[in-house]
Design a protein that fits this description.
- The protein is of the alpha/beta class.
- It has two domains: 89 residues, 2-Layer Sandwich (Zincin-like), CATH 3.30.2010; 120 residues, Zincin-like (2-Layer Sandwich).
- 42% of the residues lie in helices and 15% in strands.
- It contains eight helices and eight strands, in the order αβββααααβββαββαα.
- The strands form three sheets. A three-stranded mixed sheet has the order 1-3-2, covered by helices on one side. A three-stranded mixed sheet has the order 4-6-5, with helices on one face.
- Helix 2 crosses helix 3, helix 5 packs across helix 6 and helix 6 runs antiparallel to helix 7.
- The radius of gyration is 21 Å and the shape is elongated.
- The mean pLDDT is 89.
- It binds zinc ion.
- Zinc ion (ZN) binds next to helix 6.
Amino acid sequence: MTRETGIFNRAFLDWNPSASVPRIEIRYYPYATLTHTIRYRKSIIKVRINLLFKNAPSDVLEAVAHILFSKLYQHRTPAEALDRYHRFVEGNQHRFRALLQARSNKAPALIPAKGHHFNLQQIFDRINRHLFRSRLVMPSLGWSRRAVQTKLGEYQALRQAIVINRRLDSADTPGYVLEYLMFHEMLHMKHGAEIRNGRRVVHTKKFRIEERKFEGYAAAKEWIRRMTRHPEWSRPPRDF
Ligand SMILES: [Zn+2]
């Protein structure tokens, strides 16, 4: 019995104390997001764990098992398991990113995430935990080298990077504006692009609907609208 099977067998019994343990097949799978799946079919439980978790400590795999069983049985996830899981993801984001970039061979130059007023990594972690259930692997995060006037932020899919306009690293910027911009770029990571009539569409209807769920959406949009009306913005920012 592998370590993983032992962990999942024990977790199964926690959820079904009087049942006999069925066959549980566990595979590591190279999902692009931090996804893990469970299916129950023909008396076999099939589990796929993200390959990035291959050498995770046993208590973390145990947390994954409880999260997956709670999904399978449509039951609330035990808070303790969820918390252990989130802490592991946040503590390993640099390692995950390095592994994914080694796989894709497109590591960008590192740009510091910590600015004078805001730390983009802290903002990313917070939003990933609360709005993406820690599913996103942290991309390279950084402030633009120059305070460009046409973009507030962008997601560079090939380089796996989110770049935020350096001008916003200021005491005048409300925290919710940066959180909104980060959330917007993270939605690009989640949704990718659709091809429609031969054109690449990134702000799809689904994207826009989900974007509006952000709590400070209206206030952030309004702040950005007023800020970019200033003449130093030679033209309205295209995408952010
Ligand atoms: Zn966008």
